[in-house]
Amino acid sequence: MKYFKSNLMLLLLLFSQLSLKSQNSKVKDYNNYEPQYCEGVIPSILNQSSSSKAKEATKTIKSTNAKRSEKKTEIDHAIESSFFEDQLLTSGQILYGDPMAEFVNQVADELLTDKKQLRDELQFFVMKSHVPNAYTTHNGIVVVTIGLLARLENESQLAVILAHEIQHYVLKHSLQQYKEVKQTIADSRSRRGSSDLESKIKHLYRFSKDQELEADKMGYELIKNSKYDLSEGIYVFEMLKYSDYPFLETTMKIESFETPYYKYPTHIKEGIAKKLTEAVAADEKSDKEELDEETSTHPSLDKRINILKNLVEQKNFAGKQKFVVGQKQFEEIQKMSRYELLLLFVRRGDYGRSFYLSSVVEILYGKGNFIDKVKAMSLYGILEHKIKKHDLADYGCGINQNRGDWRPITAAIETLDAKDFGAFASKLIYDIYSVQRQDSFLTKITNRTFQLIQGKLDINLKDFLNFKPQDIETAKKNVDTSAVISTDGKLKNPRSRITRTSGNEIAINSAYYTGIFYTVADKKALESYINSVEQSYSSMGTPKKETYASKVERDKKRYLSSNKNISSITFLEPKFTFSLGRVTSYGNDIQSNRNYYLEEITKKNILDQWKFVSDYTNMDIQMLNNSVSKTLKTEDLNNYSRMNDWLTERLNNDTGQMILFYSQYLKTEAQDKYIGWVGYDYTEVPRPFDPLALFYSLYLPVYFPFYLAKQLQNDCYFNQRILVYNTETGRQIYNNKNMLEHKIKDDFLKAQIYNTIYEIKHVEGK
Amino acid sequence: MYRLTINIRIALVCFLTTLGGVGNTFGQANPGYLGRKSLVQIDITGSMGNLIFEGPIMNLNFGASYEFARAKDFAWNIGYKSINQTMNTFMCLGESFTYDIPDPNFPGSTKNTYLTDGNFNYHVDEIKVASKFYSEVKGAIAPYGRYMGLEFTLDRMSFSDFENIKWYSNMGASINDTVSSVAPISIVTLSFISGGRKMLTDQIGLDYNFGMGYTIYQSTPNMLLELVDGESSSSDKELVFQTMGMKHFSTSKFFQASVGISYLF
Fold it and tell me: Most-buried pick from A301, A609, A624, B209 (CB within 10 A)?
């Protein structure tokens, strides 16, 4: 018995340890944060094909006694909703089963404790989007964005938002709105080429001002009956009002990076100050325009705040709580969503914002490798785009888009020229790198940064080492200020004034940024690092200037040399749209309606053909599946999302090659070396009457049957777009856009796919 | 349609343009249809130029060809075709094929002689060289899809099996003047072709081809225009048969349609 007892104790101990371990494994490692993907079992709606769901919905609508025309609109809406919802849920942007989505579901449970039936109809998800927003679909799918979660302060605020969204579903607002603006939706939505998920979701589930107020009102009722504090709703509206601002602010100016040996020249500081004052003026102007309520779909936030304030004052909400599920859980998901938000900004290429926010998160939650990496990545990203002379407003440094405390630093980044910024970025990146030299990603980024500033910006890295503080002093002394001020009665060309001042500025400029590394503690390490970078760069050889002849020679080599190394490519499952349309005015404008059922069937066929070519050739083509089916699993969706994230980041960076942040999260780089994206877009339009062809056919009667056959057939537009990237270098190795006038047939598809694979193998040269 | 005034120089320009075009299409080596760049083809050609003649509308001939793709959208096609046609005077109704023979009653003068009855065969051995531009779609992969091109043929026409040949003079008397042999003719033709290939399996394809062509050179002294329209008259008996054969053959190039099966490898 004793033996048994001790054993039992041991077992209990083991068990408790095991359970502790399993709990520990669930705790997120924020130091080395990794993007959150879905967890647990896949929702059952994703195991039922979209067409069967649409058919079921159609059946129920047909059995009702509504008017025929109304039924038709309802059916259209049901079909579109069913297919779109699946597209949304499998887009790789949606999270379920993870702590954030779980928490949202728990809050929803609390809200709807008395309404079990309604709770069963609704499903709550989290969407990977930086925009603070929430959406409700026709079939009861409520989506809350990460941008929103990162801004919330307590659980009640989330409850107010959920209550509002639930009312949109209960009141069937999307159907009502669809009926009203069917024509405008049809006009704008179906124009070929517009398939952006977020713009579409806004179109499909955009509600009128009255509907918003109605949902507000009903939502408040729901909150009143729950344990949540309604007064927190006021904050929600205020938060939406400040959506252009960071979720938490800290003052960050370019001066904070100055040292006694590294000071920005006055003209740079003046330039930044000028930009900031201009931006404030622009703000006032745009604020005035925004006041015009006619243009916005939502009622003005001030109006909503006032309504809520009145409501809160009238009634006593004693005993209501800010947290019901739990403050700890909320704080956990708040932290997680803020880390995710950093990732989202990096993925978007909003490097200015991610640089600023990484400092905010650092103050909030302490230092960490992940935050350091985000910071380094942001600086490196901006440097790449600065060198390419891209508009930095597209990369999170737009002064007009950034309001609040992230404006000064983003304005400074935009104002600094590439050389100034190169020195600035290399110092900050080196600081991060010098602490974690073993990190492969940081090593890559740091090496590339130093190579860039040396190779592209012509900064002599030795200047950093050879800097002496006296240089600045002597440069300052050399400035002949008397020449600028002198009034000796002689007439002067004002242009000479400019030449002199700028001459003096240059004397300081050439020295000013070289002092940036003077404060580095371990100078020996810096010296050895710079030497190693210089050596590796010189061994690479300086790029030659490209002449026409050398370009032709290079292209020839590319075409003729076959790269046998590419033996496997991972493709995201092809995107496919099938639409039947009509030409509105001859030759240019095509309006089309998507045929979702045909899309589903043809997509399967396209996948079969890809599989055929994969088996046929020696190329190992892995297709990451995300279409709704019985066999779809969470793992499939996560694999798809992971690749999709990498591709999104790559596509958001319009550069020839770039090291990407998400390349850290690929399974293994060798396995996922080549990533591809395939898109097909097929439209059939009745062929416009061609009088010339008729004339010819009448002249040569033998051709008349051929003319007739051609005229009776639809015009086909078959767009094919294929992109392939090398994840190691971030280089695009294949980009093909074909506009084909061909029907989708098996042999044609096979040939096209085979041709693509052939070209990929032959295009990338050494 | 009947104004066929094209001479051999224009044809040469066409041919050289074709070659020039080929040079430009070597941007990338040809991937071929699923890696297959060559094919052999067997086809049946129907020549519908026979409409001008009385008789069977379609003249069906078997042919075989070999095609090899040299660029992504370009292929050469080399082939052989055997054409057999039985001609009789019935087919030439409404047309008059005459030759002049010396009139024994009036020395020094000739009399016009009509062919009134009889059959003969002509046989053509045709070697063709065609350039095909697979121009249907961007990114087409020769040899697959639709194409347009030029087809040059070198033909050798021989005559045989003269039976029951009867002549009738304009004086009202029938003349027995048998024919034993007619010298063969060499012909060069040029056709614009268009068509396509649809794959039935990964290796076997169904071909269809349309062509419009004409004779650009022939070794007989007739005018090309004469062969197509108008009466021919000469003092040479052989030329009557050559003209008949040429006229039939040349017009049959106007509309050609063929269906074939090809095996890709």
Answer: B209
Query: What residues in chain B have their Cβ under 8 A from chain A's Cβ atoms?
Result: 27-29, 31, 33-35, 48, 136-139, 141, 144-145, 198-199, 202, 255
The upper half-sphere exposure of residue B71, i.e. CA atoms within 13 Å in the direction of its Cβ, equals 17
Whether residue B214 has pLDDT greater than 60: yes
- Which chain A positions have a beta carbon within 8 Å of B137's beta carbon? 738, 740-742
Name which of A152-161, A378-387, A486-495, B36-45 the model is least confident about. A486-495
Which of A735, A754, A759 to probe the B interface (max B CBs under 10 A)? A754
Which candidate from B27, B31, B202 shows the least CB-CB separation from A755? Answer: B31
Model pLDDT, residue B28:
53
Considering A328, A346, A368, which residue would you say is the last residue of a domain? A328
Same domain, A12 and A150: no
Same domain, A687 and A589: yes
Average pLDDT, chain A: 80
CA A434, CA A439: separation in Å to the nearest integer? 10
Determine the pLDDT at residue B88. 75
Domains in chain B with CATH codes: 8-264 (2.40.160.20)
Are A755 and B141 in contact (CB < 8 Å)? yes
Q: Which residues pair with A582 in a beta bridge?
A: A591
Phi-psi sector, B35: left (phi>0), alpha (psi -120 to 50), beta:
left
Cis peptide leading into A246, omega within 30 of 0? Answer: no
Are residues A71 and A26 part of one domain?
no
Burial A444-473 (b: 16+ CB within 10 A, else e): ebbbbbbbbbbebbebebebbbebeeebbe
Q: What phi, psi does B166 have (nearest 5°)?
A: -130, 140
| A contacts of B264 (beta carbons < 8 Å) | none
Same domain, A21 and A137: no
Residues of A in contact with B202 (CB under 8 A): 750
- Residue B139 has its nearest CB partner, among A560, A613, A738, at A738
Q: Is the domain of A133 the same as that of A22? A: no
Using a CB-CB cut-off of 8 Å, the residues of chain B touching A740 are: 137-139
Residues of B in contact with A745 (CB under 8 A): 198
Cβ within 8 Å, pair B34-A559: no
Cβ neighbours for A477, distance < 8 A, ≥ 6 positions apart = none
Structure tokens at A581: 């349309």
List, in order, residues 6 or more apart from A355 with CB less than 8 Å away: A374, A375, A378, A379, A382, A396, A409, A413
Residue A749 lies in a domain: yes
Q: Are residues A14 and A96 in the same domain?
A: no
A759–B136: do the CB atoms touch at under 8 Å?
A: no
Mapping DSSP to helix (H, G, I), strand (E, B) and coil, where does residue A402 land? coil
Residues A24 and A70 in one domain: no
The minimal CB distance from B138 to the residues A559, A740, A754 is found for: A740
pLDDT above 60: residue A192: no
Instruction: Determine, yes or no, domain membership for A393.
Output: no
Percent of chain A whose pLDDT exceeds 70: 80
A91 within some domain: yes
How would you label A719-742 residue by residue, b for 16+ Cβ within 10 Å and e otherwise? bbbbbbbbbbebebbbebebebeb
Interface of A with B (CB under 8 A): 559-560, 613, 616-617, 702, 720, 736, 738-742, 745, 747-748, 750-752, 754-755, 758-759, 762
- Please indicate whether, in this complex, the C-beta atoms of A751 and B34 are within 8 angstroms of each other: yes
A169 and A21 co-located in one domain: no
Residue A439: inside a domain? no
- Domain count across chain A: 3
The answer to whether B132 and B193 are in contact (CB under 8 A) is yes
Instruction: Tell me whether residues A752 and B139 touch, CB distance under 8 A.
Output: yes
Domain of A690, in residue numbers? 555-763
* β-pair partners for A340: none
